[in-house]
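Researcher: Batch entry, complex prediction.
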Amino acid sequence: MYAALWKIIPGPLWARILIAVAAAVIVVALLMMFVFPWVDTLVTPRDVTVQ
Amino acid sequence: MGVLGEVLITVGVLVLLFLVWQLYINNAVLANQQSGITKSQSQAWATVTPTPKASNAPEQTDFGPPPALAPVGAGQQFAIIYIPRLGQDSQRAARNGVDPGSVLNHGYYGHYPNTQWPGEPGNFALAIHRTGWGSSFADVPKLQAGDKMYVETADGYYTYAFRNYEFVKPTAVDVVAPVPGSNAAPGDQMLMTITTCNPLLGDAERMISYGVFESWRPRTAGPPAAIAAIVAKEAS
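Model: Structure tokens for the complex:
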């Protein structure tokens, strides 16, 4: 999977590393800004009340 | 097989990333939001200038019996709670209700709707997250008997003194009774009870912190000396 992705990235080695790192940063940022806040509403929080 | 292994590793990394987000990043973001919320609340309440006392007058400490806080609707914000032992930036706003989605998961103290209010005989019961969600309550085991807990409302400041902890099962609803653990009538006793989860990062039990009402200061008398610097900074 990752080997196939690596082959898709064009350019010389340094450019491919740069693009791969940039893509990873964008994916992590999207996860933290949009995906994780949504997941947090689905998972049960640690309960702090007595009931 | 190679692809399956990569997918499994990716899922593992995603779960770890989610935990980092939940425990650190989201926590820091919500704590920062709370500090904005308490600051704007302080500024909104800072319309009353404390009456300056005569320079040679003794410091007045007894302002009589506290007024009962008028109950607010579900989800309404009604107080800022300061516990200096938990840190100089540990104040959090309090809202009425213990709904996780709208109150607790934003770092607020949540008031158990069927319990009493500050200044009312009985038990002013709150819940807050121990860790994560912007909570400042991880250090709660550092509280020592007599540590002050201040409840600032539109009217003034209610001071409670920390009394003791109790560790109970999540079903122990009697900890928020007017007299915890009892069916007795409260008389004129005023308690404050804060429930949070125990152990740290788990919720198998509840850690209960009790405080006893000590004194009351109207807003015209200014904040109690111990939090005067924090309040002044917040309201500026």
